[in-house]
Amino acid sequence: MPLIKLNEVSKLFGFGDATTVALDDVGLDVSAGEFVAIMGPSGSGKSTLMNIIGLLDRPTQGSYKLNGKSVEKLNSNARAKYRRDHIGFVFQSFNLLPRLNVLDNVALPLAYRGVSQVRRQKKASEILDRVGLADREYFMPGQLSGGQSQRVAIARALVNNPDIIIADEPTGNLDSSSSRLVMELLNDLHKAGNTILLVTHNPELTRYAARVVFMHDGSIIGDEASSIGEVPDAVRRSMYFMPKASEEDDLAGISALMSALPDKIIAKNKSTKTKKKPKKSKTKYKGRANKRAKK
After folding, report:
1. Rounded to two decimals, what is the model's pTM?
2. What whole-number distance in Å separates Cα of residue 110 and Cα of residue 153?
3. Residue 236: which pLDDT band, with cuts at 50, 70 and 90?
4. Dihedrals phi, psi of 196, to nearest 5 degrees
5. Distance between CA atoms of 236 and 130, rounded to whole angstroms?
6. DSSP H helical segments within 33-175, as ranges?
7. Is 181 within 8 Å of 151 (Cβ atoms)?
8. Integer angstrom CA distances of residue 232 from 216, 236, 250, 251, 283
């Protein structure tokens, strides 16, 4: 039995002539333990699909079974409870509370469940150790790098032991090195048995998925299984006009600082040369003007 089962799911926004079809008769089955990447251009319906799967929204029509239970018609409170206990979210913008330290941010979902402070902080501390941030427990979000903030967000998503982790563009605000760390962490979670749905615009990230779903204009137009570590054929075709990364780039990433330094040096040299030329010509011009005046 699939963990996620969508059958002829549609989502409409607006009324009358202003109606927009965000999802059009979408059918999707995801088994427990799968790592599925969802790709498509902006406006293809990826986020709407994730909102419905994550119980943040409900379909206009169609059925949705989560772990065998019909959830499309649950009321707001029941949906919130089911979402809290079964689904973890990782967003592009981290969504950490700036006035809470790292430990309290991670422990927050447990507070909503009524877990005592001692127990939730112990659990949060264990999860932070799992994502490699045991030494950042009492830091504030503003003291963290982008990669560290995203790992805190992943720890928060894991603290309730969810059945599904929905990662919506989790590397969108990160440099290459931090992106690699976050994706390796998600890969480790997948190997541990977690079901992961990854929304991404980056074809290279599909290497981590065992299956890639393609969306366009609110419909699923492709669903391709692939070997982990390889970019699927359909994705590779879409990358035909894109610069190809080498294996070294995949392993090491690109240092943003080192790539920015040459540009700064070139810009500095150009500005220096530009300043010298006007001074020279200006001096000659003045000298000639003085000679003419004396004559």
Report:
1. 0.74
2. 14
3. low
4. -125, 130
5. 33
6. 46-53, 76-86, 102-112, 117-130, 146-158
7. yes
8. 18, 6, 16, 19, 65
